[in-house]
Write a structure and sequence with these properties.
This is Fructose-bisphosphate aldolase, class II. Keywords: Metal-binding, Zinc. Its cofactor is Zn(2+). The chain is an alpha/beta fold. It has a single domain, classed as Aldolase class I (TIM Barrel, Alpha-Beta Barrel), CATH 3.20.20.70. Helix content is 50%, strand content 15%. It has eleven helices and eight strands. Helix 10 runs antiparallel to helix 11. It binds glyceraldehyde-3-phosphate (G3H) and zinc ion. Zinc ion (ZN) binds next to loops.
């Protein structure tokens, strides 16, 4: 079933588990996330990023409603999250497409403007029963530039949570978006201090680049929502590439998309098993 993201994060937080949140770009991705979660017998979150909405020509409803429908028929609980929203208009459109949560990302703004904009976004979200995630200490890599050196300050994190009323906080602790190698090293001491300072669940972005043992340690240390995107693209595109390299005759996209979907589902399943 489709369930509120808040429920999944709260349960994972209470049990000291991680909840995997996986980027969805197309319908096949949503099907792969649900298939992987069912294979693992664990809940998961499907998340659609502002960039993915841009890929769909700015239309949110078709991919969101399709993903929500796939989640509704899942045998395990699945949440629907709108990720990395910088556009206020897109934020407002989240209210009628089945989302349980949104990440409002004003982390590129100067601190005072990040606080004010995030406070307004959280108030708006809470009026509509939506759970709101925000980011402090910009996690690099979305623009192709890796910035694994960025760090979130624990005292600032505590003040930011108190000033904005957000439900979860994405923190910079050594990961970086869009890595294709799993070589990131996390600052576990900082994770511990952030867990103590922030009163809300912590979110790890750029988790593709983080090796399994580092992810396990991060979850044990207090990271709760674990966002994974690029690893799925590696699996999906790798399967398409392998299929087409071995077959120059097939024209039916269902042939190579089904192998891509299957490989992506396996990637989701193994990531979920690591997170517990
Ligand atoms: O919000 C999405 C995640 O941070 C994905 O990052 O593509 O590096 O795994 P990743
Ligand atoms: Zn991210």
């Amino acid at each position: 079933p489709l369930v509120p993201t808040a429920e999944l994060v709260r349960a994972a937080h209470a049990d000291g588990r991680g909840i995997g949140a996986f980027n969805v770009i197309t319908l096949e991705h949503a099907e792969a996330v649900v298939a992987g979660a069912e294979a693992a017998g664990l809940p998961a979150v499907c998340q659609i990023s502002e960039n993915a909405v841009r890929f769909h020509g700015g239309s949110l409803a078709p991919i969101a409603r399709a993903t929500a429908a796939v989640a509704e028929s899942a045998a395990v609980p699945v949440g629907l999250h709108l990720d990395h929203v910088t556009d206020e208009d897109l934020l407002r459109r989240a209210a009628d497409c089945g989302f349980g949560s949104v990440m409002y990302d004003a982390s590129a703004l100067p601190h005072a403007r990040n606080v004010a904009a995030t406070r307004a976004a959280a108030d708006w979200a809470h009026d509509r029963g939506l759970w709101l995630e925000a980011e402090l200490g910009e996690i690099g890599g979305k623009d192709g530039v890796h910035a694994p050196g960025a760090r979130t300050d624990p005292a600032e994190a505590a003040a930011f949570v108190a000033a904005t009323g957000i439900d979860a906080l994405a923190v910079a602790v050594g990961s970086s978006h869009a890595m294709t190698t799993r070589t990131a090293r996390l600052d576990h001491d900082l994770i511990g201090r952030l867990r103590g300072a922030a009163t809300v669940p912590l979110v790890l972005h750029g988790s593709t680049g983080v090796p399994d043992d580092e992810l396990r340690r991060a979850v044990a240390g207090g990271m709760v929502k674990i966002n994974i995107g690029t690893a799925l693209n590696i699996a999906f595109t790798g399967a398409v590439r392998d299929f087409l390299a071995a077959d120059s005759v097939t024209v039916d996209p269902r042939r190579y998309l089904s192998s891509a979907r299957t490989r992506m589902a396996s990637a989701v399943e193994s990531a979920l098993r690591v997170l517990g």
